[in-house]
Amino acid sequence: MRAAALLALCLCSGCIYVQWSRTSINEPVSDTALARIESGATLEYCLEQLGAPTNVWRSRRGNGHFGLAYGWLDDTTVGLSISVPFTELFAPSLRLSKGASKLKGVVLWFDRDLKLYYVQRGLLTELGAGF
Hints:
Elements: H1 2-12, E1 15-25, H2 31-35, H3 43-50, E2 55-58, E3 66-83, E4 93-99, E5 104-110, E6 116-123
């Protein structure tokens, strides 16, 4: 009981901050748009269908292949921050947050003849690892 009263007193002299934020970047590539693109499609056709990519990646294999990466994000973050001043020079704080900032995307891989040979979907941080 005494500890709860002390904690309540400390919190009354401190600061509690709650944060909620939402971030939305780019629109996802639709399944309909991807269905119109088949293996062997030209670079020009793919760009006409999907527009400019967010990134262009060179293949790690050194074979002249490259990928067009289309990324999007729809992220919500919730956070809590508590700061309690004990003295003029000592004010510990605690910050907790839960967010799912994962950039989702699609990568279209092209050979040196500018023909599509592979399409990947997933988290952009994980795509392209074998290419």
